[in-house]
TrEMBL record:
UniProt feature coiled coil, ranges: none
GO MF annotations in UniProt: RNA binding
InterPro entries given in the database record: PORR_domain, PORR_fam
Domain PORR: 35-372
Organism: Populus deltoides
PANTHER family the record matches: ASSOCIATED SALT-INDUCIBLE PROTEIN, PUTATIVE-RELATED (PTHR31476:SF15), PROTEIN WHAT'S THIS FACTOR 1 HOMOLOG, CHLOROPLASTIC (PTHR31476)
Name of the molecule in the record: PORR domain-containing protein
UniProt superkingdom: Eukaryota
Amino acid sequence: MRTYIIKSLFKHPFTFSITIRSKTTSAQYVASRARDATFEKLMDKYKNFVKVIAIQDLILSNPNKTPPCISLDFLSKLSQKLHLNRGAPSFLRKYPHIFHIFYDPAKSQAFCRLTDTALEISRKEEEAVNASLPLVVDRLVRLLFMSTSKSLPLRAVFKVWRELGLPDDFEDSVIVKNPNLFRLCDGNEPSTHLLKLVGDFSGNHFTAAVENWRVTECCKEDCGVDRMDIRYSFKHVYPPGMRLSKTFRAKVKEWQSLPYLGPYEDLMEKKKKTKAGLKGLEKRAVAIVHEFLSLTVEKMVEVEKISHFRNCFGIDMNIRDLFLDHPGMFYLSTKGKRHTVFLREAYERGRLIEPNPVYDVRRKLLDLVFLGRHDMLTSKSRSVEINKSEESGSENESVD
């Protein structure tokens, strides 16, 4: 009987999450979550997309070559660090639309460069990031304002520079160029720096993404709810096929109506460790991570990266468990030996509902990862490579 009960709990874990949390390990809690096939399919390719980005950055960081390239010997030495389990050459050959392997007779070495298509995507992403600098500055200001001290360790910001759409030289192009907003100070530890928010910002200067959603919901023609009824609510979209018991629905309804301080409101005094006080702190923590994800370009981030901000935001609880406790708002994937969280409401069928220019460009590169080796004979990038080879008559031959 006991075995049957445990199996039933893990089949539909969130129905009983409150009662079984104390009886399960953290790993069991992660494993028991309700899966979403759409997000899992996306992450199945995204785990390799992360590796593609890492190799692309290595290639582009070698400006002495025209076009930029990197030797396969050097890349092979980094295979373990980059998690290229079958070696660098094998991984590169999986994505001929992105990487081109060629042999340099003068150096008696094989090299890798980006295809013309991949280079063009990289150039367009840089243009999109530079064009969105005003938005980037606003994101960084909001992030700092959510901090209890209005400051963040610079190393934590470095962790999420790509997620926030920051340019790779953001210290100069964003921080130094906006002295009226940002200031770099020495941290408490040697060789550490704090990024501080300067200037006068009132408490109602910023509006959280969830508040905009509430206004939109109330303004709908077919809206059947009063604004007062959803003034503390968050949008919930549950995984397909997930069974929701009456008890679970009742607890969610109770949680939705619970008052809390928003992510841009100052926590004037520490909440008492009463049941109501702890619930309020949890809901504030949910509001902060919800806003954090809303500020990212792709509405997703690795849990390990966001954990670096936990103390700065005054979140006194496990970030990963926070995501698992609210499956209607967040989806946690464990693909690629990393835990990645998505803002569920921002996605539909594996794509952002409201894309932005930086996301659109990155999606083109992700689509090439999805493409893999397919359509090589008809792809524009392959045609360019063949034409170049024919016109130059060089001895450089592709080995892929």
